[in-house]
Write a structure and sequence with these properties.
binds P1-(5'-adenosyl)P5-(5'-thymidyl)pentaphosphate; 9 helices; single chain; globular; Rossmann fold; alpha/beta; 5-stranded parallel beta sheet
């Protein structure tokens, strides 16, 4: 795969969507990135998310996050629905984009399943690893930006924004276990996952991310860059 997959992860309300949009805008102005695009090395930047990055995924997202129209969702059903969303997302969006050399900026990916269904719901981590492997066909992120925020602070932000979805409504203990899941993942995958302090201002966090991505641009495409 020639393209790059950059993933934003974190607890509810950590600021992933906000920062993903900032990075997208910044890439459109960065001279190095523009230079690479003009050389035809990076045809497109795709902004997407899980769940819900495809038409089928949008239907799955509304089943997963909507209100209890069908009664309670069993934990393994929830896991399989996230896996189905991901398999479709890989086949329809991520794999073709990476094969073309494009960048994919993705709001959540495999680590969310480990943190939420593994640490949060207590499902088998090895089962999750197997399902993630089936869904992704082994495609890992090139860089995962973990926006590290206290779970309670994130939930307060989500609450201030409006009504909470089905998963946001889970107990505080559940969300604290999710946070511990992200901490364990970051400790175990230090090259792939970079921890970003998400307590600061939107601008300070955006600057931190830009510095990191600028450095990666040089690592990934150094010999093609003029600067
Ligand atoms: N899920 C997902 C699983 O359980 N398993 C899986 O495998 C996958 C893929 C997805 C849900 O599905 C679960 C996890 C989730 O529960 P979602 O709507 O995509 O649902 O949920 P989130 O990804 O959590 O999206 P949120 O919008 O809730 O959080 P974000 O994107 O992290 O935060 P953002 O940027 O929308 O900001 C939230 C609020 O905080 C403010 C923003 O203005 C906004 O109001 N904010 C800040 N405030 C102060 N300081 C800052 N630095 C701020 N940054 C943003």
């Amino acid at each position: 795969m020639n393209g790059k997959l950059i993933v934003f992860e974190g607890v509810e309300g950590a600021g992933k969507t906000t920062q993903l949009n900032h990075l997208h805008q910044w890439l459109q102005q960065d001279p190095d990135f523009q230079d690479l695009q003009q050389q035809g090395l990076i045809p497109e930047v795709i902004v997407t998310r899980e769940p819900g990055g495809t038409p089928l995924g949008k239907a799955l997202r509304s089943l997963l996050l909507g209100q209890a129209e069908y009664g309670a969702i069993a934990d393994h059903t929830e896991l399989l629905l996230y896996a189905a969303d991901r398999a479709q997302h890989l086949a329809e969006v991520i794999r073709p984009a990476l094969a073309a050399g494009s960048w994919v900026l993705c709001d959540r990916y495999v680590d969310s399943t480990v943190a939420y269904q593994g640490y949060g719901r207590g499902l088998s981590l090895s089962l999750i690893e197997t399902l993630n492997h089936i869904a992704t066909q082994g495609i890992a992120s090139d860089l995962t930006l973990w926006l590290k925020l206290n779970a309670d602070t994130g939930l307060t932000r989500s609450r201030q924004r409006g009504t909470l979805d089905r998963i946001e409504q889970a107990t505080h203990d559940f969300h604290r276990r999710v946070q511990r899941g992200f901490e364990s993942l970051a400790a175990a995958h230090q090259h792939r996952i970079v921890s970003i302090n998400a307590e600061g201002s939107v601008d300070a966090i955006a600057q931190h991310i830009q510095t990191l991505v600028k450095r990666r641009l040089k690592t990934w495409y150094g010999h093609h860059l003029k600067t």
